[in-house]
Batch of 2 targets.
Target 1
Amino acid sequence: MNSRVKTGIGVVLTAIMLFPVYWMVNVSFTKDTDMRHDPPLLFPLHGTLEGYRAVIDQQMPYLGTSLLVGLGTVILTVALSAPAGYSLAKLRPRGGGALSFVLLMAQMIPGIIMAMGFYAIYLKLGVLNSAAGLVLADSTIAVPFGVLIFTAFMSGIPSELINAAKIDGAGTFRTFRSVVLPVSRNAVVTVSLFAFLWAWSDFVFATTLDGGGPRQPITLGIYHYIGNNNQQWNAIMATAVIASIPATLLLILAQRYVAAGVTAGAVKD
Amino acid sequence: MTRAGAASAAPARAPRRRSPQWAAWAFLAPVVIYLIAFYAYPLYRNLDLSLRHYTVRSFVQGDAPFSGLDNYRTILDNATFWPAFLHTVVFTGVSLLFQFTIGMALAVFFAQNFKLSATLRALFLVPWLLPLIVSASTWSWMLNSDSGVVNFALRSVGIDPVNWLTSPSWALTSVVIANIWIGIPFNLVVLYSGLQAIPSEIYEAAALDGASGWQRFWRVTFPLLRPVSAITLLLGLVYTLKVFDIIWIMTKGGPTDSSTTFATWSYKLGFGTLVPQFGPGAAVGNLLIIMALIFGLLYIRMQRRQVS
């Protein structure tokens, strides 16, 4: 097989894999009256923007909440996991190995169970249906991952660099802030990207902890849409397209960080 | 000024230098407190829920009587238990089998480094990055009985349309198909990076010995990839056991529990009905944790062994 044939096969396979994504975009432009057309319209030739108009009219507050929750989760996750990663990688605390083990196990706990525990606690504290509560819950998805990424990355920072800062009279915190953090930019980007994406995509915590709140994220916006008007699939799919924008941007702008993040937990070389 | 400041700060720093442990734990403290407050405590609350007899009233007031393992007995006797167990096993097993096989085939294909291969491989990540509700609702519409594009494709090749989401005999298959689609990218990326670690000299030697492509895969690639494969499968297993979103959004575990797994059953008991049964819901959740942690421990052991 020569290279050109392989490229051809690769394109066909990718097209098959991405067909559902294409279909989502196609349906988002389809007119209500054509939605149950037989055969289905394969191209949005006589498309409509009704769906997107509905998004602008109805879904903007949901998108705003998701953006806020996503950014909050990023800040909380980085603030918690970067110092911990530094400590585990360079300061060698007694019991650090046990903590790494706990973090690995924490990643495996099903979200639905965390959600139930959080629900019981939030109900008692009266913080159900709040964006802050959602940030806190969403961060539990990303913090263990964040610590593991920071630990792995910071282990690779040469000790000479840190010792040089110490000789210059910098304390541990100063060294962390002025030397370690700046050279860990890649790890910060990777952790932030995933923390944002997971918070943005979260449905489990949103539906259990924020199901009746005044500020709900976009995942619930779509969920209510599916529940309420089963007919307006162009509006549902248009919302889905908008909700996919962060993932798409991420893939275009930060591809290498994404691949690094996917393999980080699984394979160590 | 700066020098004076540095001089006066020096004595304060001295004890830190004497006990580096202090600094190490100061940096860890936020995460440790966080883990106790937002991991351990919710898990403890969940365990507590499963050991008490809760009603909506006592859930709010917090004075539910201790009932031992009653909730666990309740769910074991429940008619949903064995079907949910079976669905969890089938959902996880079939998803993994296809995700892994397809992911492996694609990884081997993309490892051949043809023109555009890096770009196409990146595009394969899209399903994994999309919010699950986006994928689940797209699949719901594609699998719609009357107007879905899947049934249209079946009709056009002469196969009878299927009631994917509304028939009890197809609902589980439908959610498995959507889940396989979502899981392929993860398998592809991890197995691909495993393939990259195999030195190309080994392939060259095999090619010199006259091994065909098929032989090279089974005799060289597959054995060398076994540790990475085991880790991919175990991690996939832990992830798949806890899948909730896709099933709940596509079928709500129905019709008549035909696609209910432990994850959706637990949610349904706690949140999906008019009269919440928090105790049994938490009990199902704890069974799920035990299953996940068993395979999680296996995964960590595997990974440790690979590193050393």
Note: Chain A touches chain B through 100 residues (CB under 8 Å).
Target 2
Amino acid sequence: MAVTITIPTALRQYAGGQASLTLEAETVGTLLHGLVETYPDLGRHLFNEQGKLRNFVNVYVGDEDIRYLDGEETRLQGSETVSIIPAIAGGSGDTSYAAP
Amino acid sequence: MIDHAVQHLDDRRQPLELVGNTPLLRLERIDPDLPPGVQVYAKAEWYNLGGSVKDRPALWMIRAGERCGQLRPGMRIADATSGNTGIAYATLGAALGYPVTLALPANASAERKRILRALGAELILTDAAEGMDLAIRTIRALVAHEPERYFYPDQYNNPANPQAHYETTGPEIWQQTEGQVTHFVAALGTSGTFMGTARYLREQCPDVYLVAVQPDSPYHALEGVKHMATTQLLPGIYDTTLPDAIEEISSEQAFVMARRLARREGLLVGISAAANVAVALQVARQLTAGVVVTILCDSASRYLSERFWEESEWVESGEGI
């Protein structure tokens, strides 16, 4: 089924500048791997050398952190939005500081 | 009794005197394989009043604002930050009698919000999904609407930020190493710590080697550190020609080093501090003799809810530290 995934500002430069993307996927894992197949430059930012999701990458299904669901095995219904959330909440911003 | 009491009071210190003059710690146990002629030292910046290195620029920006008349009694200090700079404003604002208003995304950690509120700061919580962008726009709109009421320090472009380090961190390192420092390592966020300290040390010793630390990706977990290669706006205070080298570090390497510093040195430090030490050790291992100095930006107390503390001690993506 088609699922929409949102991409944080810091990673959009590796995803053709897009803020979100809709892909066919049954689980969070297949969605993320599908994203990286579409945009290979995203790969090293999301996955480690063993192909596992880097441990500080935050992925949410709706409002739920996948760490508290079934991780990459979390099943998708198609109606929810999956989000990659910045690893640091707040601070003094990064690329965001460019906002006028 | 009275004489004794008066004598005792002569030893008193005002809270603001706790900004700067932090201890320089020798890291001896973190890497037993370092060449014998190489020493690694780190500034324990959590000794500052507000618990982080950010007290130094915050105090210097406040004082500069007072000197030029931009900050006057009765005004509020306003900025968008939930990080150490916000805590420094709230701490120093309380100590100096300036109320503080901070805009931050609603999903900033509960412990940060609690610290800021405990210090009396007024918090404007903005939509988490809009990130820091909205927090910054919110505070800028507030300041623009009532410029007479708010002082906006703008740490990314305020020369008082690096000046604080030029006048304090740099001279402290020079004196505490008795002029023997050969390498200085610090991460770039606003770049203030690196710029001010590095500039001072270079003036004392043209041969001192200056290493800037960067995350390996713009998506990283090193709070307070900025990925300069991809940022849309470089801080105005950043001089790209000053670093002799820029070394990248992964967030995972910083996590491993944070755990290692806790368990081998008894030093519970934050993630950017651990990143600094990881790079300082990389630099140190390539030397036969030298004194490498870096910055422990803050303690771990603001990051203890992070998951990485629970992970196994050494194993991380097969990469050596």
Note: Chain B is about 35% helix and 15% strand.
